Amino acid sequence: MKRLHSIEEAIVALKRGQFILIHDDKGRENEVDMVIAAEYVKPEHISRMRLAAGGLICLAISNKYAIKLGLAYMYSIMEEMAKINPLYSKLASGISPYGDKPAFSIAVNHRDTFTGITDTDRALTISKMAMICDKIDTTGIEDFAKGFRSPGHVPILIASNGLLRERKGHTELCIYLAQLAGLVHAVTICEMLDSETYRSLSVTKAEKYARDNNLCLLDADQLKKYNEVSKVES
Q: What are the tens digits of pLDDT across the range 173-230?
């Protein structure tokens, strides 16, 4: 049985700008993601996710931020494109094997990046997006339009409007945790992969990584149960 940390421990780690690990669910993706608050991201964090995790480095943001920025889910964009080319309708149809539609929106680069893919470039894009989200009710929308371009190298994930009441993916789990921590509702996540099995890293191996690196490890059930009994709205 895996050794889990408390939600309170994870909140403290996030507020300190540290990584935490979150396992979603055996009945869902059954993956462990490395997670860090977007407002603290630096090039060394991107490098660590790239080397230690190896999955897709994404920026997850709240539904509120996405609406104010005018961002849409990629499947909705493709459904609109289907009016021009029916092929897009086929590509966007259906749900994932684990039961819901993907949280992907567009991918962006900050305009001060070069290629956009380096650790430095992606860290800049993510940190600047965190600033946009933090200023969403003041200059954020205008700053986003002026400061970013798409397509880019940082995929944006949009959390569902009801968070864990509607969807229980890593996007919602992490945004809910950022909300509990009182941080900007923007987190950087990356799936942990296994170069020996060529599959997702097992929870057992993730637990060892967490132990060896003094990181918190949470399970989705902890956050779901906390959400059910707490008075914090998600």
A: 999 999 999 999 999 999 999 999 999 999 999 999 999 999 999 998 898 888 887 7
Q: Is 209 a catalytic residue?
A: no
At the topology level, CATH places domain 7-227 in DHBP synthase (3.90.870)
29, 191, 207, 219: which is the annotated catalytic residue? 191
Helix axes 119-134, 140-147, angle to 10 degrees: 150
Residue-range domain boundaries for the chain: 7-227
**Catalytic residue at 119?**
no
* Residue at token pair 């890293």: 201
Contact 207, 216 (CB under 8 A): no
Rg (CA), the chain: 17
**Burial of 220 by CB count in 10 Å (0-12 exposed, 13-18 middle, 19+ buried)?**
buried
**Per-residue DSSP letter, 142:** H
